[in-house]
């Protein structure tokens, strides 16, 4: 298993990064919060987990070991694969996810794309005694620089589709987020605003 990756950042997307390790560019799927905390050309150290499928080897990367451990833990629930697990951590910070599971907050869990009421109930049932209690306040995400309106719209819509929302849902959420956006909002802020719209 590849437990961590260290090297200079060669590419940044909203939900994926490329880090050069020994001359090889490794594509890592990640949450928008993790990607937004990195900077092109600077060295990064990320906790990783390798998901092996018949037709693919996919690396997922996280800012902390705790995020990686939760990513692996939630996949022990029937019906939860890497895509939904990553969506959970994209929508909910680790402590907020723990709080939702321990308090059986189904409304919060069903804000994650791909998780319905039955799925949320199953997650609570199977993980309540495994995730533990929240450690403290949910961690804040690191902002990325503001970008042009068209650029952020495309990036946020692409990230939402990657999380499992339909193109129409993504476009509608982006439009609503744009209407309510403060001047100079960055991509991460716009993604969070769009996710809030989808969670209404």
Automatic annotation (TrEMBL):
Its main location: cytoplasm. It comes from the Bacteria. The keyword Cytoplasm applies. Pfam families: HHH_5, RuvA_C, RuvA_N. GO terms for cellular component: cytoplasm; Holliday junction helicase complex; Holliday junction resolvase complex. One of its GO terms (molecular function) is four-way junction DNA binding. The keyword DNA-binding applies. Residues 72-91, 107-126 form the Helix-hairpin-helix DNA-binding motif class domain. Homotetramer. Forms an RuvA(8)-RuvB(12)-Holliday junction (HJ) complex. HJ DNA is sandwiched between 2 RuvA tetramers; dsDNA enters through RuvA and exits via RuvB. An RuvB hexamer assembles on each DNA strand where it exits the tetramer. Each RuvB hexamer is contacted by two RuvA subunits (via domain III) on 2 adjacent RuvB subunits; this complex drives branch migration. In the full resolvosome a probable DNA-RuvA(4)-RuvB(12)-RuvC(2) complex forms which resolves the HJ. The RuvA-RuvB-RuvC complex processes Holliday junction (HJ) DNA during genetic recombination and DNA repair, while the RuvA-RuvB complex plays an important role in the rescue of blocked DNA replication forks via replication fork reversal (RFR). RuvA specifically binds to HJ cruciform DNA, conferring on it an open structure. The RuvB hexamer acts as an ATP-dependent pump, pulling dsDNA into and through the RuvAB complex. HJ branch migration allows RuvC to scan DNA until it finds its consensus sequence, where it cleaves and resolves the cruciform DNA. Belongs to the RuvA family. This is Holliday junction branch migration complex subunit RuvA. The lineage of its organism: Bacteria, Bacillati, Actinomycetota, Actinomycetes, Micrococcales.
């Amino acid at each position: 298993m590849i437990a961590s990756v260290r090297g200079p950042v060669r590419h940044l997307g909203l939900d994926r990064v490329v880090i050069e390790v020994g001359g090889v560019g490794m594509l890592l799927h990640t949450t928008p919060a993790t990607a937004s905390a990195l900077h092109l050309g600077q060295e990064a150290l990320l906790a990783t987990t390798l998901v092996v499928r018949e037709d693919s080897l996919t690396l997922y990367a996280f800012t902390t070991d705790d995020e990686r451990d939760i990513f692996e833990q939630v996949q022990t629930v029937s019906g939860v694969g890497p895509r939904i697990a990553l969506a959970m951590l994209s929508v909910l910070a680790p402590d907020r996810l723990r709080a939702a599971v321990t308090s059986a907050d189904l409304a919060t869990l069903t804000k994650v794309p791909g998780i319905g009421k039955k799925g949320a109930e199953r997650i609570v049932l199977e993980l309540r005694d495994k995730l533990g209690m929240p450690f403290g306040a949910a961690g804040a995400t690191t902002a990325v620089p503001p970008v042009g309106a068209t650029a952020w719209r495309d990036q946020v819509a692409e990230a939402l589709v990657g999380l499992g929302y339909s193109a129409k849902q993504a476009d509608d959420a982006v439009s609503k987020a744009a209407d309510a956006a403060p001047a100079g909002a960055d991509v991460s802020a716009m993604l969070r605003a769009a996710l809030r719209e989808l969670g209404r």
